[in-house]
Design goal:
Low-confidence stretches: none
CATH topology of the largest domain: Rossmann fold
Number of strands: 11
CATH superfamily of the largest domain: TPP-binding domain
Distance between the termini: 18 Å
Radius of gyration: 18 Å
Order of helices and strands: EHEEHHHHEHEEEEHEEEH
Strand content: 15-25%
CATH class of the largest domain: Alpha Beta
Number of domains: 2
Strand order of the largest sheet: 5-4-1-9-10-11
Number of helices: 8
CATH architecture of the largest domain: 3-Layer(aba) Sandwich
Largest sheet: 6 strands, parallel
Shape: elongated
Structural class: alpha/beta
Amino acid sequence: MEKKKLVVLTGAGISAESGLKTFRDSDGLWEGYAVEDVATPRAWRKDPSLVLQFYNERRKDVREAKPNAAHFGLAGLENDFDVTIITQNIDDLHERAGSTKIIHLHGEIFKMRSERNPQLLYPVRDEIKIGDLAEDGAQLRPAIVWFEEPVPLIETAAEIASAADIFVIVGTSMLVYPAAGLIHYVARQTPRYVIDRKIPDIVSPGNAVFIEKPATEGVKDLISLLHK
């Protein structure tokens, strides 16, 4: 029998329990930095050294972090469902937990790219420095989708959301667009589950089940509900 398509949209809340800080948890600051100073094209033009330093530190944080029970729980659902994770997170914790189909809407911390050509991508584990060049001669930058930049994978994600048999939201405030708009592509009759410490207002009730808990506890509840 064909497995049901389970699509999961994850946000910063799932990685917060692995010790990774978020903009959301600190009044718009991320490790003491304002969004506009480290996560926009303007910031890159103004002070590329600061931006590289910021993401070099985040890369180190992610290397040291470990997947938590929520990441492992979602990976385990692949035994019974055709699971696709659409994540707003730039870490690799879903991969390390064992999930096999993951779309990173906002890029990946362990990749870097030419500042001129987004298609020139390279793996990176350590630091990117000023003077590190891509093969086209342009400075390398983090392969992160910054605020004010288009989200290349959003159309792919929208198609996947529209084909979901079950749609799950874990640990996202549903405030960052276009990712937050994916809920509108989900068919009206499709069951939805929303897991968060504070349930976002954007999800209307009806066929939605709200689990107002941290991701680790909420995913455990989700697994029980899906296997009833």
